[in-house]
């Protein structure tokens, strides 16, 4: 006879000393965990509810004396952001303490463009007072809190925007024409003009340092190579593009924030149709900025909301609003992709979390694991009606909700009308363009 | 030298093969069913994503299997006979006591308390504590690890059943008129008056539901976390005290005096399953922990094993059983009179045969058998107290600290309770197949039979009618051959009629369909003036 029974000694299965950790034993046998799927579903539901409970994205506000018109990230300094306002005030904000670090006085009219160079030591500003000013950003611990401009350049026309190369020492200003400058010369190195209308925004390509895209009030998006003397391409849409942002991870793609409330993602090599149309805003999109990860971008709109889109998502993943926030003129993603900063008409810069329910601060490994598990559960059960309803729901103020509903009604009516017209015409005489092509007028080489 | 090397290699390879086969068997357990078939999927992107998911699932199953193979701290118990002459069922408890270590031999004991017996028993899910209820009003909580009675109370009235709630901190007792819930100090916490005189109690741990069946055959579900009655079902099948919860899906099984076994969930007033299992009253019922096997015992001297996936009988064994219980490893204990028999399916074939026997002192009547979780121990409640015997190989040797920890501290117990409450399942999740949650419900389409099949069916019915015609002999010329023929034709025509009517209808339908198709030919602008399609 051979016999053995289970016999566990307490010493083997418990901790030796009281300050040791408790010993943990695992057995992954499915028979020990009945109804594991139901348990998982309940956990997913709880995770979705917790996401809603902890979904408090607003971190804080920073106040100017006038409406914020433009912002610039300091690529070398994570917690600093430059903001310019309509009264000509430029400030460097410390976003951790939400205090002004430096003031850059000098502009008499609205500041329209701000940009910093790659190492964050120099700042360029331009404005409606027809002046470009170049500043040296002082190091952190100097006691004087206002800075004098290094030099300035006065022109005949107002400036609308400025952007610095990602790599190199040149920057471009736009207004009546596109001017390329470097930090040493007192006159533009090169100038471009294509058409007579005002150019309103400019962005350098993050991959190719000499490539830049501008948008103009003749509803065009134009691409320039600053090494050559003539522009490359021009795309004319039905409505004006207010701002452009390049995808930093896929630098052949850019997204245009359009006056019609949509954002259009384009591939530089194929401008005859948009790769994606991002709809949701109820009014004109004023500014756009990509996350450094290239997976998301943030938009600010005239409808008083900030939205976050996935780079390949047709609808927004998140909407931010507060009752006091007015029309948003500029938005920026922070350099670590975890915050969003918006500047609006109500004199305030607002700091938001990019993930509304993310836990801030250093996470313990157990906390991290827990968040990952919850995320996986939500992802697994996101299609089930109960979970979906909770995850999708966003509370909106009535005016925004109504405006969005009205917009939906209008687009639906237009679609129906088109359908009817098609039904009552000779077959093949009316062809519907896809939304990705519909707003494009023509492409000019 | 080289020959030797190749030999060694070969030995190594065969060993590796054996290991991989063994692992494959284990992986199957963790895969929880086969992989989905993506061949019909046309969306390449989705296909890629899903196959990646499947890959991850397979990898995690493999990791779990490897963990089981190499890293589990303890091995299961066993009892093996030497040679073909010795039989395992002839080995006595005394023989086992001599062979095993001291701590295990402490698990063999008898507690003689004749004045309050018979006793019913219940264990906590980690096997740390036992509740014993003497019929004459004795309730005891025993710490099984240290063999210390934690608390004893005398309620002074009949106690029919006792059951632990989520852990040892609360237990419910079915007493003479009402069910009472007691705290671990033996202080009465609740009295559940609306359930009536309860015969049998069961606790659904994942749902925090206390299920009870009362004298009038009413099944009640009480949510003990909120104190609300979730379900109140009149079974209408008479008084019974044969109740057991299927641990796999939390469906409650009831055995009735008519020989039927019914299965219930709190959200429907009709049984999910009603199956005739025995020709006499059902005396005991037990579910295998994997939920696919049910054992029933009938008063007509039969014990049956059922496959719960097909609802078919797998095995019929002779014998009475007053009480049945499955262990964690799938051993089946049957108790009748003063005799305990343990059956086992060697090598998991679901073919149960004798494994161990145990006879109590003559005159002891067994009322309740219960395997202690995570131990090789069988608890016996009987008419003279309670006993505990060793059944090697019955318990799960490796516990999971997050599921049930036999060495749980007070703090761990508290944390566990919080987690259990957070993961509390709603009563709607009780269903026959719990893996259905989160899956797509496929629309079931009734298949239309072909014309050939319809004709064959018609002919078959006509033949049946023809064979069945049996003319009575009648007087006064009513039995003339012509009349008989007419009658016969009438009967056949009557049998034919429903088929012909169906055919007519189908024919008309097809004509209608044609008409609709014609309408489609109209120019698009005129279609809105066309007659609306009739709902078919």
From TrEMBL, chain A:
<feature type="compositionally biased region" description="Basic residues">
    <location>
        <begin position="434"/>
        <end position="445"/>
    </location>
</feature>
<dbReference type="InterPro" id="IPR015943">
    <property type="entry name" value="WD40/YVTN_repeat-like_dom_sf"/>
</dbReference>
<dbReference type="InterPro" id="IPR007287">
    <property type="entry name" value="Sof1"/>
</dbReference>
<keyword id="KW-0687">Ribonucleoprotein</keyword>
<keyword id="KW-0539">Nucleus</keyword>
<comment type="similarity">
    <text>Belongs to the WD repeat DCAF13/WDSOF1 family.</text>
</comment>
<dbReference type="Pfam" id="PF00400">
    <property type="entry name" value="WD40"/>
</dbReference>
<feature type="repeat" description="WD">
    <location>
        <begin position="321"/>
        <end position="362"/>
    </location>
</feature>
<feature type="repeat" description="WD">
    <location>
        <begin position="278"/>
        <end position="319"/>
    </location>
</feature>
<feature type="region of interest" description="Disordered">
    <location>
        <begin position="411"/>
        <end position="445"/>
    </location>
</feature>
<dbReference type="InterPro" id="IPR019775">
    <property type="entry name" value="WD40_repeat_CS"/>
</dbReference>
<keyword id="KW-0677">Repeat</keyword>
<dbReference type="Pfam" id="PF04158">
    <property type="entry name" value="Sof1"/>
</dbReference>
<feature type="domain" description="Sof1-like protein">
    <location>
        <begin position="354"/>
        <end position="440"/>
    </location>
</feature>
<protein>
    <recommendedName>
        <fullName>DDB1- and CUL4-associated factor 13</fullName>
    </recommendedName>
</protein>
<feature type="repeat" description="WD">
    <location>
        <begin position="104"/>
        <end position="137"/>
    </location>
</feature>
<dbReference type="InterPro" id="IPR020472">
    <property type="entry name" value="WD40_PAC1"/>
</dbReference>
<dbReference type="GO" id="GO:0032040">
    <property type="term" value="C:small-subunit processome"/>
</dbReference>
<dbReference type="InterPro" id="IPR036322">
    <property type="entry name" value="WD40_repeat_dom_sf"/>
</dbReference>
<dbReference type="InterPro" id="IPR051733">
    <property type="entry name" value="WD_repeat_DCAF13/WDSOF1"/>
</dbReference>
<dbReference type="GO" id="GO:0000462">
    <property type="term" value="P:maturation of SSU-rRNA from tricistronic rRNA transcript (SSU-rRNA, 5.8S rRNA, LSU-rRNA)"/>
</dbReference>
<feature type="compositionally biased region" description="Basic and acidic residues">
    <location>
        <begin position="411"/>
        <end position="421"/>
    </location>
</feature>
Automatic annotation (TrEMBL), chain B:
<protein>
    <recommendedName>
        <fullName>BING4 C-terminal domain-containing protein</fullName>
    </recommendedName>
</protein>
<keyword id="KW-0539">Nucleus</keyword>
<feature type="repeat" description="WD">
    <location>
        <begin position="275"/>
        <end position="316"/>
    </location>
</feature>
<dbReference type="GO" id="GO:0000462">
    <property type="term" value="P:maturation of SSU-rRNA from tricistronic rRNA transcript (SSU-rRNA, 5.8S rRNA, LSU-rRNA)"/>
</dbReference>
<dbReference type="Pfam" id="PF08149">
    <property type="entry name" value="BING4CT"/>
</dbReference>
<dbReference type="InterPro" id="IPR040315">
    <property type="entry name" value="WDR46/Utp7"/>
</dbReference>
<dbReference type="InterPro" id="IPR012952">
    <property type="entry name" value="BING4_C_dom"/>
</dbReference>
<dbReference type="Pfam" id="PF00400">
    <property type="entry name" value="WD40"/>
</dbReference>
<keyword id="KW-0853">WD repeat</keyword>
<keyword id="KW-0677">Repeat</keyword>
<feature type="domain" description="BING4 C-terminal">
    <location>
        <begin position="354"/>
        <end position="434"/>
    </location>
</feature>
<dbReference type="GO" id="GO:0030686">
    <property type="term" value="C:90S preribosome"/>
</dbReference>
<dbReference type="GO" id="GO:0032040">
    <property type="term" value="C:small-subunit processome"/>
</dbReference>
<dbReference type="InterPro" id="IPR036322">
    <property type="entry name" value="WD40_repeat_dom_sf"/>
</dbReference>
<dbReference type="InterPro" id="IPR015943">
    <property type="entry name" value="WD40/YVTN_repeat-like_dom_sf"/>
</dbReference>
<dbReference type="InterPro" id="IPR001680">
    <property type="entry name" value="WD40_rpt"/>
</dbReference>
């Amino acid at each position: 006879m051979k016999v053995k029974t289970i016999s566990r000694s307490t010493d083997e299965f418990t901790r030796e000393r009281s300050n040791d950790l408790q010993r943990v034993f695992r057995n992954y046998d499915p028979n020990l965990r009945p109804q594991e799927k139901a348990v998982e579903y309940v956990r997913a539901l709880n995770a979705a509810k917790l996401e809603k409970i902890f979904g408090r994205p607003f971190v804080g506000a920073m106040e100017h004396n006038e409406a914020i018109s433009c912002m610039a990230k300091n690529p070398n300094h994570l917690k600093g952001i430059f903001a310019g306002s309509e009264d000509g005030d430029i400030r460097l904000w410390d976003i951790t303490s939400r205090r002004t670090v430096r003031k850059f006085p000098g502009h008499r009219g609205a500041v329209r463009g701000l940009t910093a160079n790659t190492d964050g030591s120099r700042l360029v500003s331009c404005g409606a007072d027809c002046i470009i000013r170049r500043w040296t950003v002082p190091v952190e611990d100097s006691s004087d809190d206002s800075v004098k401009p290094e030099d300035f350049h006065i022109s005949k026309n107002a400036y609308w925007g400025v952007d610095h190369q990602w790599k190199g020492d040149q920057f471009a200003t736009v207004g009546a024409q596109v001017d390329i400058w470097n930090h040493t010369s007192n006159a533009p190195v090169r100038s471009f003009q294509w058409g007579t209308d005002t150019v309103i925004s400019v962005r350098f390509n993050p991959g190719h340092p000499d490539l830049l895209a501008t948008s103009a009030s003749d509803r065009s998006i134009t691409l320039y190579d600053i090494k050559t003397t003539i522009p490359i391409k021009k795309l004319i849409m039905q409505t004006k593009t207010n701002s452009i942002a390049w995808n930093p991870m896929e630098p052949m793609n850019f997204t245009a924030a359009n006056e019609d409330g949509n954002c259009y993602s384009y591939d530089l090599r194929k401008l005859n149709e948009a790769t994606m149309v991002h709809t949701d805003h109820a009014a004109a999109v004023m500014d756009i900025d990509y996350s450094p990860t290239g997976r998301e971008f943030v938009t600010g709109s005239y409808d008083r909301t900030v939205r976050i889109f996935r780079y390949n998502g047709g609808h927004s993943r998140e909407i931010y609003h507060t009752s006091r926030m007015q029309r948003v003129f500029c938005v920026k993603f922070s350099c670590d992709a975890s915050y969003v900063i918006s500047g609006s008409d109500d004199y305030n810069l607002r700091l938001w979390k990019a993930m509304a329910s993310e836990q801030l601060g250093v996470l313990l490994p157990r906390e991290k694991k827990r968040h990952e598990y919850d995320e996986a559960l939500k992802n697994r059960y996101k299609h089930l009606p109960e979970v979906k309803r909770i995850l999708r729901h966003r509370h909106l103020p009535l005016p925004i909700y109504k405006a969005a509903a009205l917009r939906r009604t209008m687009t639906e009516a237009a679609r129906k009308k088109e359908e009817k017209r098609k039904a009552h015409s000779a077959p093949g005489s009316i062809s519907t363009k896809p939304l990705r092509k519909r707003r494009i007028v023509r492409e000019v080489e | 030298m080289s020959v030797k090397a190749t030999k060694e290699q070969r030995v190594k390879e065969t060993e590796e093969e054996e290991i991989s086969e063994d692992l494959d068997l284990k992986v199957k357990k963790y895969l929880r069913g086969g992989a989905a078939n993506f061949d019909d999927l046309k969306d390449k992107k989705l296909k890629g994503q899903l196959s990646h998911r499947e890959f991850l699932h397979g990898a995690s199953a493999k990791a779990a299997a490897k963990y089981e193979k190499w890293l589990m701290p303890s091995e299961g118990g066993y009892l093996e006979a030497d040679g073909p002459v010795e039989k395992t069922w002839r080995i006595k408890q005394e023989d086992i006591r001599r062979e095993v270590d001291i701590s295990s031999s402490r698990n063999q004991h008898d507690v003689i308390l004749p004045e309050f017996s018979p006793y019913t028993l219940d264990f906590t899910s980690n096997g740390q504590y036992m509740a014993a209820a003497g019929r004459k009003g004795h309730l005891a909580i025993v710490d099984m690890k240290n063999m210390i009675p934690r608390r004893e109370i005398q309620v002074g009235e009949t106690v029919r059943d006792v059951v632990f709630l989520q852990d040892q901190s609360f237990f419910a007792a079915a007493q003479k008129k009402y069910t009472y819930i007691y705290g671990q100090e033996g202080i009465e916490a609740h009295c559940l008056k609306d359930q009536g005189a309860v015969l049998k109690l069961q606790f659904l741990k994942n749902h925090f539901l206390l299920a009870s069946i009362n004298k009038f055959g009413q099944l009640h579900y009480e949510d003990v976390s909120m104190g609300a009655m979730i379900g109140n079902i009149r079974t209408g099948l008479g008084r019974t005290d044969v109740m057991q919860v299927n641990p796999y899906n939390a469906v409650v099984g009831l055995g009735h005096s008519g020989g039927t076994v019914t299965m219930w969930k709190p959200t429907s007033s009709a049984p999910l399953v009603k199956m005739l299992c025995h020709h006499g009253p059902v005396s005991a019922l037990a579910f295998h922990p994997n939920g696919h096997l049910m054992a029933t015992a009938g008063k007509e001297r039969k014990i049956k094993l059922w496959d719960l996936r097909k609802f078919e009988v797998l095995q019929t064994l002779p014998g009475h059983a007053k009480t049945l219980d499955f262990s964690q490893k799938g051993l089946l204990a049957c108790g009748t009179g003063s005799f305990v028999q343990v059956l086992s399916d060697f090598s998991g074939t679901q073919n149960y045969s004798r494994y161990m026997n145990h006879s109590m002192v003559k005159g002891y009547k067994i009322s309740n058998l219960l395997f202690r979780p995570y131990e090789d121990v069988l608890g016996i409640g009987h008419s003279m107290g309670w006993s505990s015997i060793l059944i090697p190989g019955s318990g799960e040797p490796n516990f999971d600290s997050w599921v049930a920890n036999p060495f749980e501290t007070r703090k761990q117990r508290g944390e566990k309770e919080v987690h259990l409450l957070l993961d509390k399942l709603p009563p709607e999740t009780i269903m026959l197949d719990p893996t259905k949650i989160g899956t797509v419900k496929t629309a079931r389409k009734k298949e239309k039979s072909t014309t050939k099949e319809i004709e064959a069916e018609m002919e078959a019915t006509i033949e049946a009618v023809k064979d069945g015609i049996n003319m009575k002999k009648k007087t006064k010329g009513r039995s003339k051959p012509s009349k008989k023929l007419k009658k016969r034709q009438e009967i056949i025509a009557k049998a034919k009629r429903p088929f012909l009517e169906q055919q007519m209808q189908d024919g008309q339908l097809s004509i209608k369909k044609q008409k609709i198709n014609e309408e489609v030919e109209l120019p698009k602008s005129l279609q809105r003036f066309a007659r609306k399609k009739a709902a078919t």
